[in-house]
Every structure is written in structure tokens, then in C-alpha cells.
Specification:
Shape: rod-shaped
Order of helices and strands: HH
Number of helices: 2
Number of domains: 1
Oligomer: single chain
Largest sheet: none
Number of strands: 0
């Protein structure tokens, strides 16, 4: 994704440079491009943070499930041990 963004940016810069040579108005267009690039970068960072947050929540939920499973297995094992002690 980052390579595509860099390729798009490079292509835009080349087009703007050509456009600037042809029409002599490169600076405002370049500033607009930079502003849009900054907005795109900010959105990508926000999305990345949301993805990381979702992964963290999933890992926490999985860990809680694992802990509950271990507690359940431990309780079952203790019941079985107690049952066998009573039989002996």
C-alpha cells in the first residue's frame, strides 16, 4: 500500500512539474498536493491505529478465553481427582 502511495505521489509530482513548466503555476498546485498527501497520511495513520487497537482487543479477548478454559479444565481435573479419591 505504501509503495502504491509513493508511486502515486511521484506520478503527481511529475505531472505537476510538467504542468508548472507549461503554465507557470506550479507552487499553488504543489502546496495543494502536499496538503492532500498530508491528509492521506493522517487517514492512513488513523486507520493503522484502529487496526492495532482491534488486534489488541482481540488478543485480550483470546487471553481471557484461554484463562477461562484453563480454569474450567483445572476445575474438571480437581473434580476427577476428588472422585477417584472417594472411590479409593
Amino acid at each position: 500500500m505504501k509503495r502504491m502511495r509513493v508511486a502515486r505521489r511521484d506520478e503527481r509530482i511529475q505531472k505537476l512539474a510538467l504542468w508548472g513548466l507549461m503554465y507557470g503555476q506550479d507552487e499553488p498546485a504543489h502546496r495543494e498536493l502536499e496538503r492532500r498527501e498530508a491528509e492521506l497520511d493522517a487517514r492512513e495513520r488513523e486507520q493503522h491505529l484502529r487496526d492495532v487497537e482491534a488486534e489488541i482487543h482481540k488478543a485480550i479477548a483470546d487471553a481471557e478465553t484461554d484463562a477461562e478454559s484453563k480454569q474450567h479444565l483445572h476445575a474438571m481435573a480437581m473434580r476427577e481427582i476428588n472422585r477417584r479419591r472417594k472411590q479409593a
